[in-house]
Specification:
The chain starts with 13 loop residues before the first strand and ends in a 38-residue tail after the last helix. By secondary structure, the chain is mainly beta.
Length: 1533
């Protein structure tokens, strides 16, 4: 500084001017970014301010948005995710998406919207990811941008495929094309609802950024230079600017909202920016190349950072924050939608009412409710319309489901229906023009329906089928279908009808292309054009000028001629690459062109003035103009249907009309009435339907019998010509059903005891149905309604299949394709069985009896032959060879007919020579049995004649006459005519959802279902011979019920307070019912009707299971397979309890008494043996030492019968020797209890047998006396424990006189010795007590003749108690020192003890509260002293960790699993409804079972599953884990 010079400076906020002396105010507001949002300059200073919803930060320059922390929401193609910009926290919102591109949200409604360009859908969901739904699902091609108007609740989107911008309500309704002109490839879109404007980018040939009002008005370009791929676009509402990215120029730019002040913010380090959003002072964008989300300062472009990288494929991005959708804007439409009937769209100052695409406005606020005229065209995957009511000519997709390959179209304005054919689904459908009321009209026997025409006068539907080469007609709803023309058609294509003239016209582009004409009733057929045609496609009639127009794709012309084919002229002969559909309306002709991919029109008279309505449309098919001005026509069919019983079809004059009948039915001689049905026909099964082919008419057409039921796997079929009913078996539903031939009167006739019914025959003369069952290997017979069912043949059958009857001869024939294939014969009563043919047979499938030719015919799919032999099997000869894979075989008159799996066809040949083979019907996958029927043929003579041959039940023919027979299991009486109503002695067993019986009177041992209703999970059974009742427990419903022995009169006996009732026993003398409850560890008793319920024993019970009574001796026996397994005995009142067996026991399951030899028998499912001892537990002996997994047992005569879970069978053995082991019944799932019903079983009596022993409530017999007892809960009747004394009802007493023991409390001080019965509530007044009429609260009185208790009784009781205590102590010491099972052969246990639904052994850890799942299924691991789990001590339950279908339990389980450290260390809890691993996994693939097992490895880590899954075969019902597996080859029936 030079000495003496002066330096001037200025205060903050001023700057020195050039003179070096003056100061000027600095305008900080002119410097960009000085303030975040608002800036006010003042002399020497400035002030920053923020928009509504923001607050100034402490630096006094930047603004902070009020509200929650911002979240970046972005689409990632396969998912939608959220990331917190400052914390990089990263969460998934929606996953499993196909290709999510564009994205936006509605903050106040908490919705997220996205577009998927693979599915071509716009979807939405809640912001928490729930409730995903489609918003727009049709007419999209490449929806690359979408935006939400959060003020007016509208959705806007761009589609670069259709070159449109559209708008709709948030749910997709009232959709409208907003902008469609001068759009090429619109991409990003952003809204400014406060200003009422839309902004979008277009990266077509002239890239640009445009804006318009939100109603589409006032459109302007705001940038169209230096743009190439303008991708992302966002609006900074607080900063009043817009930002966009250009992926080709690698730049982020910004401009004012009118496009001014454009400036690049970032121009380097941007490989491929895609989408952008802004929040506060930051920009965030996604980049395809770096697969990252980045941020930078929005003013300077500095402070760049990566928010998140290594993303899958980041697409659109938004900042999820309320300030990105400020609520400050005015809703221009107000509360009532602006008074608009449809759309209210905001504009800059006001709003506009708008109509959905194609709908015209009827006033300033209202739209038309329907369309009056529109162009209708098919595009394979959709059907579209172009409204002629509006100017925009935008095409709109009709919202239809499952359109796969639509070809032909027509319409009927009377009911607003549009009809179309689909050559992928081979169907004809219809729907209203708006897409509602969609339904399939025809969907059978179509192969390539390429032409369609509506007769709008008589409401008929005409169509051509280029696959079947037919022209057919039906009512417009598809009923009364019939074939009109079936001869000399090659490839019929389009069809049009002229109800005015009564003609129909069609094109045929087969070998000799032609255009033909016939009456609409198929009369007067004539070729009208046959020259200069190659591929004649679309047809149209001009009624005014009486011309026929057609398009020829080969000649590349559109031509016309008179309706008779004369005066032919070319209308358009140039620029027609491949015309297909054709239609006329007004003065114009319209057509679709496959190659030009366009819809065009021209003047219909001159062919001039050509216009293109739409182009760039792939797969264009048929075209029509829907309008409401079809000419009215008067016809004879309009009056009383022309007198026709069925179809009235128009015809050219002079006839005018003719009557015709549905396919296969003949017109009667009056020319108006149809026969009631087909007389002679083929009927065949096709797995999911049954069809008929009439033989009355000159062509073969199959008609589906419309039974109102879902068929799954219909195999065998039979017909009763007398009643006109069809019978069929369904091997998946395991039923035999019947219905009338018209589909009515459907009913199931056999629903139980079927597995795979492969063969079925109806004896129409004898009114019986016969069937074979490959699963049960039986041949059975029954009445036609399914009653009086009887097993005829059950021995030496391997796989019986086809069956045929010869009633007049009394013979039944069947094929067996088992190990040794054979053809057998017997009488129709099962007698006189002989093998006719047993050599050179493979898979003898079909079988038929030729009565006229006295021969047998059969088809063999293995030897590929159809053979014949005499009725006795001699003179065998080959009729036809090779036939590929014949299945069903039948014959009628001189022909045989058969179905073939390989050719998927029905064939016919001469029955004597096998010559003249023709194809009856082709293209029929899933063909099964076939029968030929002639209802006009007389049936023949019934051998049983009048009065059923004198038989009370079944009368069955045999070669020399007939025999009477009884239903399965019932013996014929000595008169050889009559039967009892039920067997005398039989086994009764439960298998979860059924109770069945096996008669021991007959040798066939067939199980018969007892029709008890509402069975869910039946475990234990008993019966009462006095009243003839079955008693059973159902642990699913937790009830004890009873019904008559025939299944009727079911009622609940005990309906509450039960947990797991495993055992049940009826005391038929005292009329009491005893049961064990494993869930509550109690033994209870009640009267047989459920009254007077009382807990007998509730202490020292661990897992009580089976229970049995010996009324004559007054004993009660039960097994307990808890921690210390034992078998105990007590008196019937629960007194004098004694452990009979407690050593060398594992899981004592079943228990039964042999009342004759006075022994107890039990099965041990752990030690796998059957043992017995006497009534005192002495003389113990092992009867059978190796049984796999016995559950329950019973005794009759010299046999012990038991159920076995592993072999799924009922078996028996000699009770004396343990030898002669036999299987009574095999392959039964879920076997449980078994008992014998026999007159010899429930005998003997005791003191309670007469007048209930004089007791008012419960009478319990004991060894030498009996006691009376009272129920635990008073029932209102006075109860006395003194026999013969009925106390009076309780009198009102004063408070001071009342019993000092509160109700329900047990006063233990007054219990007399030697009565260990549980507490009985006494209803006793002091007066009664003084008269000695009642006891204290819980005592039962002995009914003996003594004056009181003898001293010896007291001493004996004390000694007994002392002895029991010593015994228990010794046992505990013994068990502590020695493991329970030391047998090395038991080292690998695969089964645990029964658990049907539910709980079984649990480790008693009282400290840990049981989870809610606990009662469902808990299996315990016992720990050794060192807490190591030894294999010997793992008790594993059936169904090893397979899950049930019950979601609630599964949810419980998932909750339990999360806290594994606690309860699951000691318990493995599961719910299962399966009895064993085989049962559970039989219907699972191996991989699925393994997967389930692996998933549960943590719970089942100690389980050795290898031995638990020895075999996973068998046809088991679906358990819900997998879909029905389709057979991999057709031979897997």
């Amino acid at each position: 500084m030079v000495r003496g010079m002066v330096q001037c400076t200025c205060h903050t906020g001023y700057r020195l001017l050039e003179d070096g002396r003056s100061c000027q105010d600095v305008n900080e507001c002119a410097e960009e970014g000085y303030c975040s949002q608002g800036c006010t300059n003042s002399e020497g200073g400035f002030q920053c301010w923020c928009e509504q919803g923001y607050e100034l930060r402490p630096d006094k320059r930047s603004c902070k948005a009020l509200g929650p922390e911002p979240v970046l929401l972005f689409a990632n193609r396969i998912d939608i995710r959220q990331v917190l910009p400052h914390r990089s926290e990263y969460t998934l919102l929606l996953n499993n998406l196909e290709n999510a591109i564009a994205l936006d949200f509605h903050h106040s409604k908490e919705l997220v919207f996205w577009s998927d360009v693979t599915l071509d859908r716009i979807m939405r969901a809640n912001l928490n990811g729930s409730n995903v739904e489609e918003v727009v699902s049709t007419g999209l091609e490449s929806p690359g941008g979408l935006a939400i108007d959060w003020i007016h609740d509208k959705l806007y989107w761009t589609d670069s495929g259709t070159s449109r911008i559209e708008v709709a309500n948030l749910d997709g309704t009232h959709r409208k094309v907003l902008l469609w002109q001068n759009l090429e490839k619109p991409r990003a879109i952003a809204l400014h609802p406060m200003e009422g404007t839309i902004y979008w980018t277009d990266w077509g040939n002239t890239p640009r950024i445009e804006y318009s009002n939100m109603d589409g008005s006032n459109r302007r370009i705001i940038a169209d230079t230096h743009l190439f791929w303008p991708n992302g676009l966002t609006i900074d509402y607080a900063g009043h600017r817009m930002y966009w990215v250009d992926a080709k120029h690698h730049v982020i730019e910004r401009a004012d909202l009118d496009g001014r002040n454009r400036k690049a913010v970032i121009s380097q380090g941007l490989p491929h920016p895609f989408a952008i959003t802004v929040f506060e002072d930051s920009l965030y964008w996604t980049d395809w190349h770096t697969k990252s989300i980045n941020s930078a300062n929005k003013f300077t472009g500095k402070n760049q950072e990566i928010i998140r990288n290594k993303l899958h494929f980041p697409m659109d991005i938004h900042t999820l924050h309320p300030q990105r959708q400020p609520a400050a804007g005015r809703n221009r439409c107000g509360a009532n939608n602006g008074g608009c009937t449809h759309l209210c769209l905001p504009s800059s100052k006001d709003y506009t009412c708008a109509c959905p695409t194609g709908f015209r406005k009827t006033s300033s606020h209202a739209c038309a409710q329907s369309l009056d005229k529109f162009l209708l065209f098919a595009r394979r995957m959709d059907i579209r319309r172009i409204s002629f009511d509006t100017d925009d000519l935008s095409d709109d997709v009709i919202p239809l489901a499952d359109v796969r390959s639509a070809v032909a179209l027509d319409w009927d304005s009377k009911d607003d229906y549009v009809y179309w054919t689909d050559v992928s689904t081979d169907s004809i459908s219809r729907a209203k023009w708006d897409g509602s009321s969609q339904e399939v009209v025809v969907d059978t026997s179509l192969e390539s329906p390429a032409g369609l025409a509506i007769d709008w006068v008589t409401n008929k539907l005409y169509w051509t089928d280029a696959g079947t080469d037919r022209i057919e007609v039906s009512n417009t709803d598809g009923t009364m279908r019939t074939v009109l023309i079936w001869e000399n058609l090659d490839r019929p294509r389009d069809i049009v009808v002229d109800p005015v003239g009564g003609f129909m016209y069609w094109t045929d582009w087969g070998a000799s292309p032609k255009i033909e004409r016939a009456g609409m009733d198929a009369s007067n057929r004539l070729v009208i054009i046959s020259s200069n045609l190659t591929w004649p496609n679309g047809l149209a009639i001009d009624y005014e000028s009486q011309r026929l127009y057609w398009a020829d794709a080969g000649m590349k012309t559109i031509e016309y001629a008179s309706l008779d084919g004369n005066n032919r002229k070319v209308l358009i002969g140039s620029n027609l690459p491949h015309p297909f559909g054709l239609t006329l309306y007004g003065e114009r002709i319209y057509w679709t062109d496959w190659q030009a991919k366009s819809i065009q029109s021209a003047d219909r008279r001159t062919g001039q003035a050509r216009e293109t309505l739409q182009d760039n449309l792939e797969n264009l098919m048929d075209i029509h103009v829907f309008h409401r001005h079809r000419p009215p026509v008067r016809t004879a069919c309009q009056v009383g249907n022309g007198g026709c019983s069925h179809l009235c079809l128009l015809a050219p004059l002079p006839k005018g009309y003719s009557c015709t009948c549905p396919t296969g039915i003949n017109l009667q001689s009056d020319g108006k009435t149809c026969s009631p049905g087909m007389t002679s026909f083929l009927i065949f099964a096709r797995r999911t339907d049954i069809r008929m082919v009439s033989l009355d008419i000159p062509y073969f057409a199959d008609v589906v019998i419309s039974v109102n039921v879902t068929m799954k796997n219909t195999i065998a079929i039979g017909v009763d010509p007398r009643e006109g009913k069809v019978y069929w078996s369904d091997s998946t539903l395991r039923k035999i059903s019947r219905a009338a031939l018209d589909g009515s009167q459907f009913e199931d006739i056999i629903t139980t005891g079927l597995l795979t019914t492969d063969g079925l025959a109806v004896d129409a003369i004898g009114r019986k149905i016969y069937w074979t069952d490959t699963g049960t290997n039986r041949i059975e017979v029954g009445n036609l309604d399914g009653s009086m069912r009887k097993v005829l043949v059950w021995q030496n059958l391997d796989s019986p299949r086809a069956i045929a009857l010869y009633h007049e001869m009394g013979y039944m024939y069947w094929t067996d394709w088992g190990e040794n294939a054979k053809l057998e014969r017997s009488g129709m009563d099962g007698s006189g069985r002989v093998v006719l043919i047993s050599n050179n047979l493979g898979w003898p499938n079909g079988l038929a009896v030729d009565k006229a030719g006295s021969q047998l015919l059969w088809a063999d799919a293995h030897t590929e032959r159809i053979e014949a032999a005499d009725l006795n099997g001699a003179n065998r000869r080959t009729l036809l060879s090779p036939v590929q894979h014949p299945y069903g075989l039948t014959l009628l008159d001189s022909y045989i007919y058969w179905t073939d799996w390989q050719t998927r066809s029905i064939h016919r040949a001469d029955k004597d020579t096998g010559a003249n083979v023709i194809l009856v019907r082709a293209n029929l996958p899933g063909l099964m049995d076939i029968q030929a029927v002639d209802r006009a043929r007389p049936l023949g003579f019934n051998k049983c004649g009048v009065r059923n041959g004198g038989c009370s039940h079944l009368c069955l023919p045999h070669p020399t006459g007939f025999s009477c027979a009884c239903p399965t299991g019932i013996q014929l009486k000595r008169d050889e005519q009559t039967c009892d109503s039920s067997p005398e002695t039989y086994l009764l067993f439960s298998s979860r959802a059924s109770i069945r019986r096996i008669s021991l009177d007959t040798s066939d041992h067939t199980d018969v279902h007892i029709p008890v209703p509402e069975l869910n999970n039946v475990i234990s059974l008993d019966y009462d011979s006095v009243d003839g009742k079955i008693y059973y427990t159902d642990v699913f419903l937790d009830v004890i019920r009873r019904s008559d022995l025939n299944g009727s009169n079911m009622e609940t006996v005990i309906g509450q307070g039960l947990k797991t009732t495993d055992g049940l026993a009826v005391d038929w003398v005292a009329r009491n019912l005893y049961w064990t409850d494993t869930g509550r560890n109690t033994i209870e008793v009640a009267r047989l009707d459920g009254s007077s319920r009382k807990v007998l024993i509730n202490n020292s019970l661990d897992e009580p299971r089976a229970i049995a009574v010996f009324p004559k001796k007054g004993y009660l026996f039960w097994t307990d397979w808890g921690h210390i397994a034992k078998i105990e005995r007590a008196n019937l009142d629960g007194s004098e309890r004694k452990i009979l067996i407690n050593t060398d026991l594992g899981w004592p399951n079943g228990l039964t008494l042999d009342y004759d030899t006075r022994r107890i028998y039990w099965v041990d499912a752990h030690l796998d043996r059957i043992e017995s001892c006497d009534l005192n537990g002495k003389l113990r002996q092992v009867l059978v030492s190796q049984v796999s997994h016995p559950f329950a047992l019973t005794q009759q005569d010299r046999w012990i019968y038991w159920t076995d879970w592993q072999t799924k069978s009922i078996q028996r053995v000699d009770k004396y020797s343990g030898r002669n082991k036999e299987t009574v019944l095999a392959n039964v799932e879920g076997l449980m209890d078994i008992i014998v019903v026999s007159p010899q079983r429930q005998t003997g009596t005791n003191a309670c047998g007469v007048n209930n022993g004089g007791c008012t409530h419960l009478c319990f017999a004991r060894a030498s006396d009996f006691v009376c007892a009272c129920p635990d809960e008073p029932d209102g009747r006075p109860c006395s424990t003194i026999p013969g004394v009925v106390p009076p009802g309780p009198e009102p007493t004063r408070v001071s006189e009342r019993s000092q023991t509160p109700p329900g409390r047990v006063d233990t001080s007054t219990t007399k010795p030697l009565t260990s019965l549980e507490a009985v509530e006494g209803n006793c007044s002091d007066k009664d007590a003084r008269r000695g009429l009642c006891t204290h609260a819980n005592e039962a009185v002995l009914a003996t003749m003594g004056e009181g208790l003898h001293v010896s009784y007291i001493i004996g009781g004390l000694l007994s108690i002392l002895f029991i205590l010593l015994l228990i102590a010794a046992l505990i010491i013994y068990r502590h020192n020695k493991s329970k099972f030391t047998d090395p052969g038991l080292g690998n246990l695969t089964y645990s003890n029964p658990s049907y639904r539910t709980s079984t052994q649990e480790v008693k850890i009282e400290a840990i509260p049981k989870p809610t799942m606990y009662n469902q299924l808990c299996y315990k691991k016992e720990t050794g002293p060192d807490h190591s789990y030894t294999k010997e001590k793992i008790k594993i339950v059936e169904g090893i960790c397979l899950l049930s279908g019950d979601d609630s339990e599964w949810d419980d389980l998932k909750q339990i699993r999360s806290s594994r450290g606690g309860i699951l260390r000691d318990h493995v809890c599961m719910k299962t409804d399966t009895v064993s691993i085989q049962a559970s996994s039989g219907s699972l693939d191996d991989t699925e079972t393994e997967q389930l097992l692996q998933e549960e490895q943590s719970e089942c880590s100690s389980v050795n599953t290898a031995a638990a899954t020895p075999e996973r075969r068998g046809s088991l019902p679906d358990t819900g884990w997998k879909h029905q597996r389709k057979p991999s080859t057709e031979s897997e029936v």
